[in-house]
Amino acid sequence: MTPAACLSRGLAELRLPAPKLASDRLLAYLELIGKWNRTFNLTAIRDPLTMVTHHLLDSLAVVEHLPEGSLADVGAGAGLPGIPIAICQPDRPVTLNDASEKKCAFLRQAAIELQLRNVRVEKGRVENWRPIERFDVVICRGFSDLAKFVASCRHLLLPHGLLAAMKGSYPGDELAALLPGSGRGDVRRLHVPMLDAERHVVLLEPVV
To answer: Measured between alpha carbons, how far is 81 from 67 in angstroms, rounded to an integer?
Structure first.
C-alpha cells in the first residue's frame, strides 16, 4: 500500500470532513519532515507508510473528541498533532509552541510551504508564555505527565477551556497523581486506523 492509499483509507475510516487539498497537504507535510529530518532529527520514524499511521492518523484520531475553537499545541516538536489538525480544520486557529529554535524554524517553514494561514508559531518555554488571547483547547502529545501538563498549561486556557493530553496506554498512575482543581480526567480510547496499539486522550477542565 502506498502512503497516499493508506492516508485515503485512514481518513475515510475516521470519517473526518476535510477540504479537498487536505490529503495533498498532509503528504507534503510528511515529505517536509523527511527533508528536515536529515539535519534536525525531528522524528525517529523514517518510513513514509509508518509515518502516515503513527503521525498523521494518530494525530487526527483525536479530532472528534475536541470542542471547536482556538487550539494551542504545546511541545509541538515536528508539529504533531497541531499541523495535521490545522490542515484538516482550516477554520480553526492553531498555535504551535516549542522551546527549540530549530523546531520552531521547521514549524514556520511548514506553515509557509503548506500555506496554512490558520497557523502561527510561538517559541519559548510554555511556563513563561503569556498569550494576549487564551485558548479554547490546549493539546499535547508526549509533552509530560498529566500533573505537569496541568501545572504548566492551565494559564493558557480560556474559562471552561479544555486540556487534552494524548497518551498511549491508559494512564492510571498519572490520573491518580492529579492534584485537586485539575479537573476530572475524562479518558477516551482512540481508534487509529491501521495502528495496532493503544491510544487514549485525557480531557481535563481545570480551574483557571
So the answer is: 15
95 and 48 in contact (C-beta within 8 Å)? no
Q: What pLDDT, in 10s, does the model give residues 78-91?
A: 999 999 999 999 99
User: Residue by residue, what is the 3-state secondary structure of 74-126?
Assistant: ECCCCCCCHHHHHHHCCCCCEEEEECCHHHHHHHHHHHHHCCCCCEEEEECCH
Q: Cell numbers 509552541 correspond to what residue?
A: 97
List, in order, residues 6 or more apart from 148 with CB less than 8 Å away: none
pLDDT at 21: 85
Cell of 193: 486506523
pLDDT in tens, 189-202: 999 999 988 999 99
Torsion of CA 104, 51, 19, 142, to 10 degrees: -50
160: cell is 471552561
Mean pLDDT over all residues of the chain? 93
Tell the CATH topology of 3-204.
Rossmann fold (3.40.50)
pLDDT at 135: 98
Q: Compute φ and ψ for 202, nearest 5 degrees.
A: -105, 120
Residue 84's identity, in one-letter code, is P
* Cβ pair 135, 148 in contact under 8 A: no
Domain ranges in the chain?
3-204
